[in-house]
Amino acid sequence: MKILSLLLVIAGFCLGTLGAAGYNVPEDDVTAEVQEKKKLQETTWATPLFAGGLVLLVVGGVLQKQAKGAAASSEDGAHPTAFFRAQIDTIRRMVVDLDQRKDALDQGELRDLVGDLIGREFFELTSRHEEFAGIVGFTHYARVWEHVASAERLLNRYWSMATDGHHDEARQEIEYARKSIERAHEAVQQI
Predict the structure, then answer these.
(1) Alpha-carbon gap, residue 70 to 6, rounded angstroms
(2) Helix (H, G, I), strand (E, B) or coil at 79
């Protein structure tokens, strides 16, 4: 189905382009009568080719979207958002743990744990953001991702401040990141 949808999109683009080219009748050094005849001949097929190309593009796009949805839902019979829900929950639990232990941990150890979280779990989640948007649509994506991005940004801010030696001021960023990732967790559960 993926190949068929891709072929339809390519064929639709080619037909639409060919049809659109038929609307352009260049001015030549010919008489008005010959020019009218030429214009009529060139535009006779332009509209059907253009319309047919648009139809093929739409059908191919719909088939591609269905194929993506089917592929996402066929992963072990799980909900299409299962990976994202699990990953956000894992990150939430890790950030909550960091927030609870931030005063007890050594400054360097806390900074390294936050760096690992950003480099592993957050990277794994955020590198698939387009897939998530394709599954849930832009509105749901925006509701979840604003909080995911905020939590990541706050943890990056903590790491940067801690690396520069401002550990005490930086610790508050972990609390803010916790609130953001908890909001993301709540939002993804509502999808």
Answers:
(1) 16
(2) coil
